[in-house]
Amino acid sequence: LRDILKQNIPVADVCRQISRNMEYSSRLQLMHMLFGISGADGTFQDQESNSVETFISLMGMKYVYRGVVGEIPPGIDPMTDMVVEKTPLTREFFGLECKNAKATVPGTDFSFDLWYTTETGLNNPNISTPFSSIDGLLIIFFYRMGDVIVEFEAQGIYNRSIPDKELTVSDKYREIERAPMHSIISKMMNL
Fold this sequence. Notes:
The protein is an alpha+beta fold and about 190 residues long. It contains 4 helices and 9 strands. The protein is globular and about 50 Å long.
């Protein structure tokens, strides 16, 4: 196993094989498992240093891309064709009043109800997302990643400090440029 983990795995070839040889439901289950295994990975934003770091750990490979605040992370469609309209609807989540906005894509029948709150006191919480026009913390939202719509719903809101050591990039992660990181994430989402 140790020797296998040291090998350079051709991600594009593996993705093609999975796409050709697995049914959609099996590929979706594989995606859930892989993202579950790499649950500590994701995107972290540090406004003090004006940086956004995207991490991915996949089949023993660990990559990091360092972007800047305001840049949408690799793998996430900026959805420049999306229209977001705020509505008068409100609803309570986690004891906070939340507001509604409807996201639509012109020329399609796609629409999605976004829910967000302005009661957390966070400034520009969506600056590095396709929802930068929303002035509150997103509670229910989605991203388009490749050909897949990924829906998110907060399970709670917590205000806690994260020690710097937890946000330090391990030397086990190899720094790569935006295009390769975007390619890896897109291929995985389009399995």
